[in-house]
């Protein structure tokens, strides 16, 4: 496994752990009614789980397992992978901070931070598609006919 894919996958595992820590806190709070503000962390749990864990794991495995781009550049343009990684992670971390602060304070600045977070994640997914698309090729079968 090459370094870029390994970093994606290890980061995804860290987000899985964080998601379940936040999720446990939210559930304990629901059961014990410790602090009503903790409920604002529920969207953070979902984003850590779906963007941090699932999306990042999918991106890492796809970058690792999809067919080679070429002999010279087996993984294609790795800059696109780093743009994906940066956009997903900066966007997610911004969201983790801004989402509860918007709920707690209502300050418009945190709404703008959420918009920037979403924009970073959209750019990340477009970069991922640009990185993977050329690696999805039709490969000939043993009879010389396309297999897909």
Question: Can you give a write-up of this model?
Answer:
The protein is mainly α and 148 residues long. It has one domain. The chain is built from 4 helices and no strands. Helix 1 (3-32) runs antiparallel to helix 2 (42-65) and helix 2 (42-65) packs antiparallel against helix 3 (78-105). The radius of gyration is 19 Å and the shape is elongated. The model has no long low-confidence stretch (mean pLDDT 89).
Summarize the structure.
The protein is mainly alpha-helical. The chain is about 70% helix and about 0% strand. It has one domain.
Topology:
Elements: H1 3-32, H2 42-65, H3 78-105, H4 108-132
Q: Summarize the helix and strand pattern as letters.
A: HHHH
Overall 3D shape: elongated
Most strands sheet:
none
Helicity, in percent? over 70%
End-to-end separation in angstroms reads 26 Å
SS-based class:
mainly alpha
Q: Indicate how many domains the architecture comprises.
A: 1
Nearest-integer average pLDDT: 89
Low-confidence stretches: none
Number of helices, counting only DSSP H or I runs of 4 residues or more: 4
- The fraction of residues in strands falls at under 5%
* Rg, alpha carbons: 19 Å
Total E-strand runs: 0
């Amino acid at each position: 496994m090459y370094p870029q894919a390994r970093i994606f996958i290890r980061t995804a595992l860290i987000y899985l752990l964080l998601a379940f820590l936040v999720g446990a806190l939210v559930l304990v709070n629901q059961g014990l009614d410790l602090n009503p503000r903790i409920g604002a962390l529920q969207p953070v749990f979902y984003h850590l789980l779906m963007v941090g864990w699932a999306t990042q794991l999918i991106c890492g495995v796809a970058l690792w397992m999809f067919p080679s781009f070429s002999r010279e550049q087996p993984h294609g343009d790795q800059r696109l992978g780093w743009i994906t990684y940066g956009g997903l992670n900066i966007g997610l971390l911004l969201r983790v901070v801004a989402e509860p602060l918007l709920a707690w304070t209502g300050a418009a600045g945190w709404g703008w931070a959420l918009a920037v977070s979403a924009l970073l994640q959209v750019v990340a997914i477009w970069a991922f598609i640009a990185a993977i698309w050329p690696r999805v090729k039709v490969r000939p079968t043993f009879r010389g006919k396309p297999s897909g």
